[in-house]
Amino acid sequence: MSYARQMLDAYPRTVVDSGVLAATIEALLDCGQACTACADADLSERHVTELVTCIRLNLDCADVCAATASVLSRRPAYDANATRRLVKACIAICRACGDECERHAGMHEHCRVCAEACRRGEQACNELLDTMR
Predict the structure, then answer these.
(1) Residue range(s) defining the domain that contains residue 31
(2) What phi, psi does 107 have (nearest 5°)?
(3) Beta carbons within 10 angstroms of residue 65's beta carbon
(4) Does 3 reside within a domain?
(5) pTM for the complete prediction?
(6) Start-end of H helices in 44-79
(7) Is the dihedral of CA 110, 112, 117, 118 positive or negative?
(8) What total of structural domains would you count in the chain?
(9) Which helix (H) or strand (E) covers residue 99, if one does?
(10) What pLDDT digit, counting tens, does each position of 2-44 carry?
(11) How many angstroms separate the CA atoms of 126 and 65, rounded?
């Protein structure tokens, strides 16, 4: 069991299913790490100028995923409307970053891995939204 799940299970009140919430937090932390590493790998590529958009989206996605995971981890301060908006923003940036990384996946393995992490983050956020309705 992950630490995210253990911490969520330790809260005295329940707002959203702990399993779904923990899976989302973990997916977003993984996505953020993958995006940070992908941006760094992009910077090491020979034709870095062709990867500028990818780098920017990677950095934006990493920041949004980290912020979303942090907010989702503060369960007692849960504000359904604000949280829903943040999760929707996270879905949008994960989708955009995943799309961009997929464009480069044939040439750069790190982009393929990052695209996969972005898709997982997007999917986890969508599943969380379904439980928040």
Answers:
(1) 16-132
(2) -105, -25
(3) 29
(4) no
(5) 0.91
(6) 52-73
(7) positive
(8) 1
(9) helix 80-104
(10) 777 776 776 666 667 888 999 999 999 999 999 999 999 999 9
(11) 14
Sequence-ordered list of residues with C-beta below 8 angstroms from that of 118, at least 6 positions apart, any chain? 31, 34, 35, 61, 94, 95, 97, 98, 101
- Asked if 102 contacts 115 with a C-beta cutoff of 8 angstroms, the reply is yes
Amino acid at the residue 68: T
Q: Is position 11 within any domain?
A: no
Distance CA 24, CA 13 (A): 19
CA distances from 46 to 43, 49, 50, 79, 131 (A): 8, 9, 9, 45, 44
Residue 82 maps to a domain: yes
CA distance 108 to 42: 9
Q: Is residue 44 part of a domain?
A: yes
* Range of weakest confidence among 8-12, 109-113, 126-130: 8-12
CATH number of the domain enclosing 75: 1.20.1270.360
